[in-house]
Amino acid sequence: MGELIIVKLGGSVITKKDSETPEVNKETLDRLAGELGEWYSPEKRLVIIHGAGSYGHVIVRKTGIHEGVKNFEQRLAFAETQRLQNELDVIVCKSMIKEGIPAFPVQASATAVMNKGKLEKMDYEVVKGLVNAGIVPVLYGVPAYDTTRVCSILSGDVIAPYLAVRLGAKMMIHGTNVNGVYTKDPRKHEDAEHIPEVSPENWEKVREALGGSADTDVTGGMRGKVEEAYELARKGVMSRIVDITVPGMLLKALNGERVGTLIR
Ligand SMILES: Nc1ncnc2c1ncn2[C@@H]1O[C@H](COP(=O)(O)OP(=O)(O)OP(=O)(O)O)[C@@H](O)[C@H]1O
Ligand SMILES: [Mg+2]
Description:
Bound molecules: adenosine-5'-triphosphate, magnesium ion
Low-confidence stretches: none
Number of domains: 1
Largest sheet: 8 strands, mixed
Structural class: alpha/beta
Oligomer: single chain
Order of helices and strands: EHHEHHEEEHEEEHEEEEHHEHE
CATH architecture: 3-Layer(aba) Sandwich
């Protein structure tokens, strides 16, 4: 069996993230499944994580459940937010299976324990066993049980590095809607400059450059993503953030080409 690769498919790509209602980007999702399917073979070890895009961030921002659940209305929203993620995941897995990837849904919030928004623990025995048995677990950002406030959001950007360390991944690929890290949010500033590599040498500067998201994002947008990935790099697993709205880019990253931003 080959080295383990963890791929995050950004909700900003697989859904219409600027939409006020849940809407999937079906064509793009199918194209990405095609690129994964082209790279994939039964001896490859792969875990897929996907984001929520308009299936998650909007309802969460509206109901405030990322800051905890206090009343009955929020309990309902907690349940509905989870249901929506499952709905999106069914669409994602269907698209993957069509391309010959044995995509198997794993709901992280079934075992995740959060505390004040931080992931304390999550069972990964099944994920590990499945990967070693030639299955491709598919996890996704979810609202999860929090010991102090009932609910907080467990981002795909947190699940990915959590598993990468524990499963001994070789590489994490973050597919999103920008070509990695820039000196400013490139969707707001035309003069934003691309940063090809994030390392201890430029970390302090990069940190200042990181913003949230030009869309609704309750889990920190690019800042959250890069901080988690940098922490992961300190533990020895490198990441690449790439623009997978560009056809062929995910395949390039999977094949080890130097695209986007490397975090080491
Ligand atoms: N310095 C920066 N460099 C690059 N992108 C940045 C920067 N600062 C902010 N961003 C924003 O980060 C966004 C990507 O993060 P976002 O969380 O929206 O996407 P995602 O993680 O793919 O989606 P999801 O959270 O639904 O999975 C970009 O669209 C951009 O607006
Ligand atoms: Mg995000």
